[in-house]
């Protein structure tokens, strides 16, 4: 058991390897709840991609992607770092080699070597001009955007502390934007005419997110109109937030339709729901005024389908950063940030 002695009374919070126990909502302070959510977010296990030669981790989310998916024109990481233009320029630039290889010259002869193999060498195994930032990606086994990678000069201390301090400053700015407004309760900020708690620094399941909001004296956000949706979306984008956020929408049983927490039906389709691309294409059907159904546009086959109608992924609604904060259907046990509205 990990006890936070001197910070929190043991009667309020204890952490074990399998559970978190908190005081009742009426006696739990917002500061204590903030610490709980931060700790529960940190405890989530990241994916282990290290033992998979053909996979590498995203830096923006807990996800492994195949090397062959890097720089293929489709973002597989939430932050899009696998399609970073600078990274992809190096990843695909070596003449006559596959995009996962580096062109090596030995004695005037050109041969192709796997990037991992090349970067594992203490000294460059052959003549070449591979950007050292690419080797940093493979050494960390994590995809980073090239502009964020700093290669220290020999004998110069690692400048990562500067990046760490910058991240700390970003955290403070996000907390100030999330938990401060004179006309809102503690831990809320004003967005249009509502007090919202945009908790981007903690990630929990849908049920835990709702419990968190209720302890704060609110509930998960429900979208009231297109104008309301646009205002929330612009707030998230303007503050450069990159988390996925749980909403107060769900499908209690398959086939019963999606509804908000107050049982108001959720509007399907555009402009609310995200569009996903699939390898398999399908024709789309349209229904005419006389209720006749037919294939659209001469049975043209389409690769894009709108959530949650096709191949539903889950039963809880979220604003997805990968999809520019349009709504997606998600597994309710996935780890995402709470988006609360005050009562």
Automatic annotation (TrEMBL):
<dbReference type="InterPro" id="IPR001304">
    <property type="entry name" value="C-type_lectin-like"/>
</dbReference>
<dbReference type="InterPro" id="IPR023415">
    <property type="entry name" value="LDLR_class-A_CS"/>
</dbReference>
<dbReference type="InterPro" id="IPR002172">
    <property type="entry name" value="LDrepeatLR_classA_rpt"/>
</dbReference>
<protein>
    <recommendedName>
        <fullName>C-type lectin domain-containing protein</fullName>
    </recommendedName>
</protein>
<feature type="domain" description="C-type lectin">
    <location>
        <begin position="191"/>
        <end position="281"/>
    </location>
</feature>
<keyword id="KW-0732">Signal</keyword>
<dbReference type="InterPro" id="IPR036055">
    <property type="entry name" value="LDL_receptor-like_sf"/>
</dbReference>
<dbReference type="InterPro" id="IPR016186">
    <property type="entry name" value="C-type_lectin-like/link_sf"/>
</dbReference>
<dbReference type="InterPro" id="IPR050828">
    <property type="entry name" value="C-type_lectin/matrix_domain"/>
</dbReference>
<feature type="signal peptide">
    <location>
        <begin position="1"/>
        <end position="44"/>
    </location>
</feature>
<dbReference type="InterPro" id="IPR016187">
    <property type="entry name" value="CTDL_fold"/>
</dbReference>
<keyword id="KW-1015">Disulfide bond</keyword>
<dbReference type="Pfam" id="PF00059">
    <property type="entry name" value="Lectin_C"/>
</dbReference>
């Amino acid at each position: 058991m990990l006890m936070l002695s001197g910070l929190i009374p043991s009667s309020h919070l204890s952490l074990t390897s399998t559970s978190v126990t908190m005081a009742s909502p009426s006696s739990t302070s917002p500061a204590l709840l903030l610490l709980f959510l931060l700790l529960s977010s940190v405890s989530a296990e990241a994916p282990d991609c290290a033992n998979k030669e053909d996979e590498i981790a995203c830096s923006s989310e807990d996800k492994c992607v195949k090397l062959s998916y890097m720089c293929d024109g489709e973002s597989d990481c939430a932050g899009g770092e696998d399609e970073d233009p600078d990274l992809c320029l190096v990843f695909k630039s070596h003449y006559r080699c596959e995009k996962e290889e580096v062109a090596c010259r030995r004695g005037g002869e050109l041969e192709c070597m796997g990037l991992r193999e090349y970067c594992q060498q203490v000294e460059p195994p052959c003549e070449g001009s591979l950007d050292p930032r690419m080797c940093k990606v493979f050494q960390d086994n994590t995809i980073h955007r090239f502009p964020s990678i700093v290669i220290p000069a020999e004998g110069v201390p690692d400048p990562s502390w500067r990046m760490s301090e910058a991240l700390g400053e970003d955290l403070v700015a996000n907390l100030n934007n999330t938990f401060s407004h004179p006309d809102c309760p503690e831990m809320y900020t004003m967005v249009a005419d509502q007090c919202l708690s945009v908790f981007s620094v903690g990630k929990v399941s849908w049920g835990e997110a709702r419990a968190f909001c209720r302890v704060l004296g609110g509930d998960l956000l429900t979208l009231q109109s297109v104008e309301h949706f646009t205002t929330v979306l612009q707030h998230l984008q303007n503050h450069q937030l990159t988390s996925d956020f749980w909403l107060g929408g769900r499908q209690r049983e398959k086939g019963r339709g999606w509804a908000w927490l107050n049982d108001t039906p959720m509007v399907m389709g555009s402009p609310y729901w995200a569009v996903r691309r699939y390898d398999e294409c399908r024709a789309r059907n349209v229904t005419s005024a006389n209720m006749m159904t037919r294939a659209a546009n001469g049975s043209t086959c389409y690769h894009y389908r709108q959530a949650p109608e096709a191949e539903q992924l889950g039963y809880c609604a979220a604003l997805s950063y990968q999809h520019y904060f349009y709504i997606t259907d998600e597994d309710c046990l996935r780890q995402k940030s709470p988006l609360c509205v005050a009562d």
